[in-house]
Amino acid sequence: MTKRAYQICSRCIMDTTDPNITFDGRGRCDYCHNFDESIKPSWRTDERGERELLEIAAKIKKAGEGKDFDCIIGLSGGLDSSFVTYIAKEKMGLRPLLFHVDGGWNTDQAVSNIERLVDGLGLDLFTEVIDWEEMRDFQLACLKAQIADQDLPQDTAFFSTLYKFARKHNIKHIITGSNYSTECCREPEEWGAYPGIDRTLIMDIHAKHGTIPWKTFPIVDVFTYKIYYKYVLGMEVVKPLNLVPYIKSEAETLLGEKFGWQKFQHKHHESRFTRFYEDYWMPRKFGYEKRRAHFSSLIMTGQMTRDQALERISKPEMDEHFLEREFEYVANKLSISVDELRALFDGPNKTFNDYKNKRYWIGVGSSVMRRFGLEKRLFR
Ligand SMILES: [Zn+2]
Questions:
Q1: Averaged over 138-142, what is the pLDDT?
Q2: How far, in Å, from the CA of 31 to the mean position of ligand 1?
Q3: Which of 201, 223, 326, 374 could staple 357 via S-S, CB 3.0–4.6 A?
Q4: Residues, CB within 5 angstroms of ligand 1 (ion)
Q5: Which residues are 60's β-sheet partners?
């Protein structure tokens, strides 16, 4: 097979590091086409969006009558979840329970942002702490598995814990900060964005590389929450940020002025592990820059110019000295030596296809959802 010549989109900065990207005659990529043709026409943040937002709010309030909370919001302290918390309370008039999952990697800034929001909005916060020995074993197993998706343990922990809690307490509405404004360009799964929580994949990684049983670690499979929780239990995921004007810089300013919330240097920097993984491990070991998708979303939605994005991506977010210190911190935190972490870093890269998985069936499920217009972002 001949290697494909390098190409970068003439409008955003997605490029051939996504092996399946395609370009039209003007050099525009299929992510841009998907945004123009599939997302933009149905994305309304004007009075039509507001009307819809208020209708949804009325429905959630009615379903929650007589209960302590009418919905639940997973709060990481990052921008999307913080801003949606503000919208849910102040614009929708909801009574959310804020739910935080502590996987052991919170930055101080994330913790402080959560405290400020909780105090400022007068809401209740419930924090669930993941068993650190199991978390550590899961993370080490993923590192040994050499897959690109090193955020699998944190993502699994955060979403599964939230779903389990909502189910146990019979909370029907889950509010998420998921949005088009900063995430319309979804990174391809080769870059470690595996679509959904796949128990088969996780248990195979555990069988091959785990060293202790993962007894308490929460794992709710993608088909359980997409089918059973949704259609049998009637649980609904609501995405209010697609119905209001959501401009990243304006949201940061608003949260700062109202609550003393502090903005992060970049998306996902609320977790010290994710910051290290996306700024160091992923680009240097696998050659994938998740920021390429983050910035492309901002270009498509008119919040950043292509030149600004090219300038930012030409160097890491954090400086070399900082990243070296973080390398040591991650090794220490996982109770391995810096040399052991270095050996894992230098090991041969693999993909989720080297493990048992349900990727084919997840693909079938998401094509069905796209056909019915339930998913507009490009999954492949
Ligand atoms: Zn593009």
A1: 98
A2: 5
A3: 201
A4: 9, 11-12, 14, 29, 31-32
A5: none
Can you tell me the distance from the alpha carbon of 142 to that of 206, in angstroms, rounded to the nearest whole number?
8
Whether the CB-CB separation of 292 and 186 falls below 8 Å is answered with no
Q: Is the dihedral of CA 182, 81, 152, 268 positive or negative?
A: positive
Centre of ligand 1 to C-alpha 292, Å, is 10
Cβ–Cβ under 8 Å, residues 236 and 173: yes
Which pTM was predicted?
0.93
| Ligand 1 center–CA 378 separation, angstroms | 12
Question: Residues 6 or more apart from 74 whose CB is under 8 A from it?
Answer: 81, 99, 100, 101, 158, 159, 162, 174, 176
User: How far away, in angstroms, is 315 Cα from ligand 1 center?
Assistant: 21
Concatenated DSSP letters of 250-286: HHHHHHHHHH-----SSTTTTBHHHHHIIIIIIIIII
CA of 38 to the centre of ligand 1 (A): 14
User: What is the CA(85)–ligand 1 centre distance, in A?
Assistant: 31
Task: Report the distance separating Cα 378 and Cα 380, nearest Å.
Answer: 7
Please write the tens of the pLDDT for every residue from 183-193.
Answer: 999 999 889 88
Domains of the chain: 44-369 (3.40.50.620)
Query: Rounded CA gap, 160 and 219, in Å?
Result: 5
CA of 148 to the centre of ligand 1 (A): 23
Backbone phi and psi for residue 124, each to the nearest 5 degrees, phi listed first: -90, 140
